[in-house]
Each structure stands twice: as C-alpha cells, then as structure tokens.
Amino acid sequence: MSHKIAVVGLGKIATDQHVPCISKNKKFDLVATVSRNNALAGKPHFSTIGELIKSKVKVDCVALCTPPSVRLAIAREALDAGYHVLIEKPPTPTVGEMLAMIEYAKKKKRVLYATWHSRYNDALDLAKKRLKGKTVNFMRVNWREDVNKWHPGQEWIAQPGGFGVFDPGINALSAVTKILPEPVFVEASKIEVPENWSTPIGVEISFKRGDGKPADMQAVFDWRQRGEQTWEIEIGTTDGMKMKLTHGGSVLYINGKLIIEAKLEEYERIYAKFAKLLKAKKSDTDTAPLQLICDAYMMAKPVVVKKFVWDAGIGKH
After folding, report:
1. Is 89 known to be catalytic?
2. Following DSSP, what letter does each residue of 143-157 receive, concatenated?
3. What is the rounded distance in angstroms from the CA atom of residue 284 to the CA atom of residue 119?
4. Which fold has domain 3-114?
5. CATH 3.30.360.10 occupies which residues in the chain?
6. What kind of fold does domain 119-262+295-305 have according to CATH?
7. Which of these is catalytic: 4, 27, 89, 178?
8. What is the model's pLDDT at position 150?
9. pLDDT digit string, tens, across residues 229-284
10. What is the pTM of this model?
C-alpha cells in the first residue's frame, strides 16, 4: 500500500529533491502539487492547499516545501483535513510556531515529521557512536557557500523569517546536535546583515558547555563564498581524539585517518523514515537546531555590511 502524497511549494528544493525521491519510493504516490508559481506536468495542480482540500483528490499526507514563514497556517489546514505532515527544514521561523504545530498535530492525532536532511548519512551515525561517552572541548564549524547557487534570486530568504545564511547554517547545527554526546549552548554571536536585507549573510557563533567546563567551540556561516563550497565540522575531545567531517558531514576522518565516505542519500532516507513513522503513527519533531538558531539571534551583535546584489540574469522563485 502506498501513501498518497501532495507536495506543497514547488520551488528548487521540491523539484530537485522531494519530487524525484517520492517518485523513486514505492511507498508513496505523488497525487498532486500546490504552488502559486509552478506546476508539475501530468499531476493535478492547485494554487492553495484549500483548493486541494476542496478538490476531493485523495491525499494521505503532504510535504511542506514553502518558505518557513507561512507553514504554521498551512500545516493547520492540512492537519484539519486529516493529512499527515512532513516539513522541509527550517521547519518554522520561530520555536514558538514549531511548538504550536507540534501540539496541533497531537490534538489532531496526525503524524508530524520535521526533517533535518543533513542528519541522514552513515558518517554522522558513526561519528555519534565514536563520540558517545566522551567530553567535547573543541569544535569548529565552517559552513561557507554561494547563495546565488543554492537560492537563485529567492529574495524571500532575505526578508524577516527567511533565515538568511542561517538557512544552510541550520544544516550544520542539525548535524552537530545529532552527534554531540551532550547539548551545547550559544554564548555569543555576531551577525552581518547587508543594508538591503533583514537577515544575515554572515554569522559567527561561540558556544559553551552546559556544565561550565572550559571549551573552545565556534561556528562560522557565510553565504558569499564563490567556487568550491565548504561544509566542515571539526571536533576534539579531552582524551585526545580529533574528528573531522567534510562534504556536508558525509566524509569522516578520525585522527587524520579516513574512516568512511558515505553515499549521499539524504532525501531518500527522509522518505524511508517518513514511511516508517506513518506505519508506526509516530511523530518526529526535534527542535534543537532551530532553538540554537533562535538563541544565536537573541545573543547577537548585529553589524550592517554593504548591499548585496544578486547575480545578473537569475530569476526570482
């Protein structure tokens, strides 16, 4: 039996990842799309989720791939209609909205799945096992990429609730919060905001341990990098172990030795897990990465930097 699913929000991430992975998974049947701007050939299409609900197209679940700022209302509509809900990351613009969504899903007795795609590979699973029981006293997160490549002309991401560089940065924090043996907390941060943006294009964060023990833990996110993209996490422990994750956390080195180079199947694994959650009628709604982002905003020293100009010829989505 396959789950009849509709994709809500048909932008770059939906067309690049969600639609192909749904099509490959026999446990799902893509029956409709919802988008104000785009459509998928051969599938029923609607401008709003309200139109989808009124259409009487049989739907079991929806994948929300819209910008985060509008998801709570859409999720409530979907849950009211009896749909289970999968959410692309970041799930919501605030922790408050995420907690409200979680409670509403419980009330409606529907499955809610907040996905964190960067968590899904064997290298991170192994890193978590190797760090179990150890004390982390060093961390460097280096996440630098080109916004023009990953979000071409998507000016919504520069508006309030759009996250800015925290959109990719939260991927790093989703990996960190998965593998660390105990939570870390934001001690201080600096955010660089272009004069024509409301969200940061560069971020520096200092973290601290919850027990007050000394530790040197920092993260840098930057959206102005050209050429090769950088997604790296370095971790040190008090017993001398040095761990490095590269290529978005899919390649693991320990003490300079290559341990594993994992195959990237993040969204394939997301939908495999969603099928399991639906079968078990169980939700998965970890808020830890989003909490760290919100805390970084709370502790931030803002710095205004020069106006950002999108690459010429790139359309808006």
Report:
1. yes
2. EE-BHHHHSTT-GGG
3. 13
4. Rossmann fold (3.40.50)
5. 119-262+295-305
6. Dihydrodipicolinate Reductase; domain 2 (3.30.360)
7. 89
8. 87
9. 999 999 999 999 999 999 999 999 999 999 999 998 999 999 999 999 999 999 99
10. 0.92
